[in-house]
Amino acid sequence: MPTPEFILDLRRHIGSASLWLSGASLLVVREGSIGPEVLLCRRADDGEWSAISGIVEPGENPAETVVREAWEEACVEVEVDRMLWLDAMDEVTFPNGDRCRFLDHGFRGRLVGGEPGIGDGEISDVGWFPAGRLPAPRQARLAAQVRICLDDPRDVVLGLERR
User: Coiled-coil intervals in this record (predicted)?
Assistant: First the structure.
């Protein structure tokens, strides 16, 4: 589901003005032959590799969001281990002019079922990558998320820009 209905309803009232939305991201980790591997998705809209992510629906817990998004986007069943970060992201302007700013809730999880594949069309590719060799194009944000995930901090990290 590309844009949730509740956002389309809001857009009818406010146009492309900036929205403050809750988002959620998940890094699925497994032990590979040469160390930890992360499951990444290549976004269909911009070609960037990223963690599984999505918009939190009204009344939904962000941990539930990532479980839902993992199934919808990457055809996998996951279990959330823990929350790792909370980050107020910079404003994003989409090609249609809509502007959003996300409060991203970041989680680490593990695969419990399914085979990674392309689900709802929001991604164009999915795969496991060694944590030390992330694919290009690579965002600094993704590298920070993977570092936090592997560091396994005792407390939730507030803001990725400090990493």
Answer: none
